[in-house]
Amino acid sequence: MRGTMSTKKRQPYPGKLLDFHRPKRPLHTPQIPVLTEDSKRCLRNLANYEPPKQRLSFPRSRLAAVLVALFVGRKGDLYVLLSRRSSSLRTYAGDTSLPGGKVDLEDHSIEDTARREAFEEIGLPRDKLKVPLLCVLEPFLAAELIVIPVVVLILDKSLTPLLNQAEVASLFSHPLASFLSTTPPFPSEPDTLEFEYHTFHDYDYAHSPGARKDKFRVHSFLTGREAGGVKPVFGLTAAMLIRTATIGYGREPSFEVHAPGAPSTEERIAWALLTRKVFVDACEKEGVDLTVARRIAGVDDQGSRMRLRERSRKQVRSKL
Asked: Which tops the pLDDT comparison, 28 or 208?
């Protein structure tokens, strides 16, 4: 699942997908490297994280999940698995993404969705002993989906990826802590010398209530593999990894995550549920109660601005 989520038509899976997993166990099973203190703190924070209680209700048909799969590198630092989408896909071909997709009928939870998609796309086993859950984050808004990240830790170092070539061209990793920094993690890479490792752009947010002129900030991080055709970590994927790293390492990024005065993610989701056709239709079809969404977005049942809020603004203006 990439920086800007979209629905995707499931491609046939490779015939040997169920044979995946691991080569024959060697005499000496690879051990997880010794964790740095930063990594220990990060894993503790993620394992103890509980997202804020969700006030909004979502249509199931518009829910999706991605798997933020972490593993320990040779020096004890934490890395996240990223994939390059197949060039044959109809949408967002070649983009850098996290494994994930829409909720299916057989999924019992968001965690099930993320694990199933990761198994189907990159062959990561659904075994919770080999790949235990760390936490589930709060929802993020994509163009036509509400996406929930599921963070796991890969413990079994002998696991071997098996890519579904119809969807995934390649698999690589990136240091998790680098999503909090403007300094490239690979300064010797020639691709990072001519361009800034981290950049952002503020876009006009067209879905704000009333006549508000809000901005929405989109981040981008180089991977150091751009010469080989790998695209930067961008948009929704970048936002989810910034959030994962912020929670884990317990510190804010060295850059401003949000544009000044930007609406919260909850506000953006609430307004999307009320105004974007794909969400409006899904909510109507599934009977989703939008009372809380209207309250958060600041509109009444007819979609107009709440009179009390507008009256308050007029009073403030009159005093200036």
From this structure: 208
